[in-house]
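step=encode ok
step=design start
structure_in=
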């Protein structure tokens, strides 16, 4: 399943991942703003992990939700977005899937400007669940690859709640962020 993310040149091959073609992505339904990635932002899906569901099915479901106008859990209406809001998705079992083109600005339901951020989401509700060791290992591989490709320092890695008023990425993943970023620095990130 080795593949290179859409926005990464071939010489910057990162971790193995499910490509958009492999999960059956549809084309974006609207034009997306362009960006130059300079930071990485970590999210959670805020829905329970489903390790028995294929990564392809999860991505197709996320794209259907993203490309339609939907009511959010807090009652607000989400507009139809051009594509999945995240650039990368890490499933409960640690599989990585390619999302939105990395050169396109992500989408958000919260009050911050997502331009310049590479958006990575981990499957799970980390208010009540823990990220799996496989997810954290995949996050480490992916973030290191992106840091190298885009010249992002560990100080450019953060969580959604650091830039917007939100519970995302959940208290249990947020608690791991300081050690995660420190490990990137310690290993020459």
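sequence_out=
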């Amino acid at each position: 399943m080795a593949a290179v993310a859409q926005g990464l040149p071939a010489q910057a091959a990162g971790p193995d991942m499910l490509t958009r073609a492999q999960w059956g992505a549809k084309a974006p339904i609207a034009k997306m703003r362009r960006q130059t990635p300079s930071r990485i932002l970590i999210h959670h899906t805020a829905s329970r992990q489903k390790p028995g569901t294929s990564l392809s099915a999860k991505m197709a479901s996320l794209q259907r939700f993203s490309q339609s106008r939907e009511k959010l859990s807090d009652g607000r209406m989400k507009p139809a977005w051009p594509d999945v809001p995240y650039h990368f998705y890490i499933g409960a079992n640690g599989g990585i899937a390619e999302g939105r083109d990395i050169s396109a600005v992500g989408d958000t339901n919260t009050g911050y400007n997502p331009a310049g951020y590479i958006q990575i989401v981990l499957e799970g509700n980390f208010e009540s669940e823990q990220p799996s060791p496989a997810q954290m290992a995949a996050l480490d591989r992916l973030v290191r690859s992106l840091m190298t490709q885009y010249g992002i320092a560990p100080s450019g890695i953060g969580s959604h709640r650091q830039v917007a008023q939100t519970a995302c990425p959940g208290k249990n993943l947020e608690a791991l962020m300081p050690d995660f970023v420190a490990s990137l620095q310690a290993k020459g990130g």
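step=design ok
step=annotate ok -> Confidence is low (pLDDT under 50) at residues 1-12.
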